[in-house]
Amino acid sequence: MEAMEQWKDQLEQLKSQLEPWKNQLEQWLHQAIEYLNQIPPTQLYAAVAVLLISTLLLLSFRFFKCTKSNTIVLTGLSGSGKTVLFYQLRDGSSHQGTVTSMEPNEGTFVLNSESNKKGKTKPVHLVDVPGHSRLQPKLDEFLPQAAGIVFVVDALEFLPNCRLASEYLYDILTKASVVKKKIPVLICCNKTDKVTAHTKEFIRKQMEKEIDKLRVSRSAISAADISNDFDLGVPGEAFAFSQCRNKVTVTEASGLTGEVAQVEQFIRELVKP
């Protein structure tokens, strides 16, 4: 009974201590209501609208950050070595040389070079789009969700395929889904382990020249026949990849020998661990 009386006394003391705070809160609440009553309804509605819009924008921004794409698209002409590169990035194997794919190879995995790393590493969604001309439209299915594009070029057999590769790359660089989102593009000069392979500098210059020719020839076509969404380059100047709205870089690699470090670095800059 004595303990109960002590507890009641402590409760009463606490209540008396909180009483001033209660009165202060009631006073603040009363002042806030009076202040709101003095504000014209139009201003009050505008303030509420601004608050709601700001909250929605903040939530949208947070959602966008949380759902940033981890998709990397591999593309290029048939025979350039895309599929070998895909397997090399996935499990470190070349699958015994050239592999011709007629359907997209697709997988979500941790890059092979990072498979032994401790801690959390964000998986990459890698898509190898077939390079056959009849299947290139499949690329449009994956571009809207891409964080980056790896355009694979056969550095060994480059010259015979230079024009076709440049046309394909031109179409990619002028697509609205690529330009508006400023999707970075890596031109990967594959098979550079071979002695007779062309260097990345040579390939870059030749492709810039071909794309410059394409700009001229396609601008001469009537507007109704032009299928490209955006124009490339600066009018009156020779074309260079540095003029593109999205970042375009060139690197060397070899899917067969596993020299893919630069490709992995490109991917990891876009798909953070």
Verbal overview:
- This protein has 273 residues and is of the alpha/beta class.
- The chain has two domains: 2-65, no CATH class; 68-270, Rossmann fold (3-Layer(aba) Sandwich).
- It has helices at residues 2-38, 41-66, 82-91, 139-142, 158-173, 176-179, 200-219, 261-270; strands at 71-76, 105-109, 124-128, 146-154, 185-190, 248-252.
- A six-stranded mixed β-sheet has the order 2-3-1-4-5-6, with helices on both faces.
- Helix 7 links the parallel strand 5 (185-190) and strand 6 (248-252).
- Helix 5 packs across helix 7 (200-219).
SSE map:
Blueprint: H1 2-38, H2 41-66, E1 71-76, H3 82-91, E2 105-109, E3 124-128, H4 139-142, E4 146-154, H5 158-173, H6 176-179, E5 185-190, H7 200-219, E6 248-252, H8 261-270
Parallel strand pairs: 1-3, 1-4, 4-5, 5-6
Antiparallel strand pairs: 2-3
**What ranges have pLDDT less than 50 throughout 5 or more consecutive residues?**
none
- End-to-end CA span: 63 Å
CATH class of the largest domain: Alpha Beta
The domain count comes to 2
Total of DSSP H or I helical runs spanning 4+ residues: 8
CATH superfamily of the largest domain: P-loop containing nucleotide triphosphate hydrolases
Structural class: alpha/beta
What's the overall geometry?
A: elongated
**Helix share of residues?**
40-55%
Q: Note the main sheet.
A: 6 strands, mixed
Report the mean per-residue pLDDT as an integer.
82
Question: H/E order of the elements?
Answer: HHEHEEHEHHEHEH
Rounded to an integer in angstroms, the radius of gyration calculated over CA atoms is: 30 Å
Strand content: 5-15%
Q: What fold name goes in the CATH topology slot of the largest domain?
A: Rossmann fold
CATH architecture label name of the largest domain: 3-Layer(aba) Sandwich
